[in-house]
Amino acid sequence: MLNIALIGYGKMGKMLHSLAEAHGCCVKAIIDPAHPEHAGKIDADLLREVEVCLDFTHPQVVMDNIRQLAALKKNLVIGTTGWYEQMDEVKKLAEEHQIGIVYGANFSIGMNIFDRILAHATDLMDKFRAYDVWGMEMHHNQKADSPSGTAIQLANTIIKHHGLKEKAVFEKVDYVIKPEELHFASVRGGSIPGVHRIGFDSEADSITLEHSIRNRSGLALGALEAALWIRGKKGFYSFNQMMDERLC
């Protein structure tokens, strides 16, 4: 069994806890200041037996968590988004403290397969410029960031494989969008776990690709797979890199 700690005990933390034992992981510590029954601060003694920490917290606290856990030489799975502008610092922390870190905008196995399907579809559609491409993502009204990290990942995939699109526009568009811009809209409402939709549209017809999460179990299972994979490793990895290794 892999000894893990859950940093953050919201909906994802609880889902991870419920699935951990059946998937080869033992929860040794839970840290969440919002839950009095659990420790509120990262503590070396509390994490003494822990091999990998899984962070599903909030963009405002995740960097501080990463710094503290890296200093304790704990390998990390980072499921929180909203910190990617500081990616260089996180890479340096992994190198400096000789730990393993794997991060992902979306730990769903299905979403990562969807990203590969999108890359191939974009390669095909790029040969026919009658088709313009757009994106949209929808999440529950408690999600703390917009656009989603997954939307950014999918937009980057499109831009990488499209000969015309150079920039993703996630904010409100109050002008005629430029041909080189990819508009990727966000919707927040209700209890939607997560929907990502990509459209290729022409005057004649439209092709739509969609990935829809039914619940958080798929994300939790992917995160637990990542925790097992990063055990004993050193370096900075994306979930996509883990998937590449598994698929090969």
Could you explain how this protein is built, in words?
It is a single chain. Helices cover 34% and strands 25% of the residues. It has two domains: 2-107 and 216-247, NAD(P)-binding Rossmann-like Domain (Rossmann fold), CATH 3.40.50; 109-212, Dihydrodipicolinate Reductase, domain 2, CATH 3.30.360.10. The two termini are 25 Å apart. It has a six-stranded parallel sheet, sandwiched between helices. It has a five-stranded mixed sheet with strand order 7-8-6-9-10. Helix 1 (11-20) crosses helix 6 (217-230). By secondary structure, it is an alpha/beta fold. The protein has helices at residues 11-20, 62-71, 87-97, 109-125, 149-161, 217-230, 239-247, and strands spanning 2-7, 25-31, 52-55, 75-78, 100-103, 132-139, 167-169, 181-188, 195-201, 206-212, 235-238.
